[in-house]
Amino acid sequence: MEISQLRIIQALVADPNLTRTAERLHMTQSALSKRIHSMEEELGLLLFERRGPRGLKPLPQAMEFAQLAERITNSWESGVSRLKRTPSEPTHFVLVGPTLFLREIVLPWWHTRAADFPNLQLEVQISPLERASLETIQSGADAGILEHKEELADYICKAIYTEQWGIVRHPTTKDKDLRKYHWGTYATLQNPVDTWLVQRQKMPPPTYRFYWQDLTAVANWVSQTPGAASVLPWHAVTRLTQQGRVTFEALGPEAASRLYLAYSRENPHKRFLKELSQVGVRPDLEMPVE
After folding, report:
1. What is the DSSP code (8-state) at residue 53?
2. Largest Cα span, the chain
3. Listed residue (124, 156, 157) closest to 141, CA to CA
4. Cβ contacts of residue 259 below 8 Å, gap of 6+?
C-alpha cells in the first residue's frame, strides 16, 4: 500500500463523489475507480458501496481505514520534514500528545509566544496510539506530552502540568445525592467517575446516560443538560466555568494526575523546550480558590 493510495481513501471518505474527488486528485474518474478496486482487492475487503449515479457510500471499514491512513500520512510527512531539516538550523518542531491538552493549553500558549521564535514552525499532532509514549517520539516527533513518566537514558521526562479532576455539574444540579445525577463520561476504560468517585470515595456506581470519547463534548453536554454531571479535568471546563455554564468542585489532591514533557537530551531546540516546559503556568487556567 502506497502513501498516495492512503490519500485516495481519505479523500473519498471526506467526499464520496467520484467526479469531484478525481478532479481534486488530478485523475480521471475511470483511473480513480480502478485504483479503488485495486486497493479493495489488496486489502481483501469492500470499502465502499457502489450506488450508481449517487456515487459511493463509505462503509464502516472505510471510515476506520481513513482514520488509520490519516495517522500514517501525518507521521510520514512529519518524518520527511524532519529529514530535510539541517541540524544547525532547526526550524520545525513536532509536538505529539493528547488532543485536549494540545488544543486548550499548548496552542493558546503558542499564540502568545510565537513572536519570540520567528523562525520556528510548530506542528502539533495527536498521538497515533491511545497514549503518547517515548516510542511515539522516537518515530518522528521532537517532543511528546506523556500521561505517565518514563525513564530512558537518552531522554528527559519532566512534569509539565498537573491535572486537577473534579465534579462538573450543570448550574442547576445541586442535589447532594450524586446517584440522582445524569452521568456521562468519555470512556468505558479508565473512567474518571469510577476512578475518583466509585473506587476512591466508595460511591455506589451511577447509572450512565452515555459514553462519548471527547472531553469537550461531555463538558458541553453537562452545560446544556439540567441534572447532568461528569468528572473532568479543570482545563477542560475552564471557560465554561468562567462563563457560569457549569460548576466545578475539585475532588482534592488525591484526584490529581500529572502530564510530562519528554524529549531527547540531544534535541537542538533548547530555548524553545525551556519555554514549553512552563506552558502549565497560565493565570487563566488556575482554579478559583474557594
Report:
1. G
2. 66
3. 124
4. 97, 98, 101, 145, 146, 147, 159, 160, 161, 162, 163, 280
Cell numbers 526550524: residue: 91
Query: Do 126 and 266 belong together in one domain?
Result: yes
* For the chain, percent of residues with pLDDT exceeding 90: 12
Cell numbers describing residue 280: 502549565
Same domain flag for 181 and 228: yes
pLDDT tens-digit readout, 23-35 = 888 888 888 888 8
Q: Is pLDDT above 90 for 222?
A: yes
Structural domain includes residue 194 = yes
- What is the structure's pLDDT at 221? 92
| Residue whose C-alpha cell reads 516546559 in the numeric block | 277
- Count the Cβ atoms, other than its own, within 10 Å of residue 283: 5
Query: Domain range for residue 61?
Result: 3-69
Count: domains in the chain: 3
Instruction: Specify burial of residue 95 (Cβ count, 10 A radius: 0-12, 13-18, 19+).
Output: buried
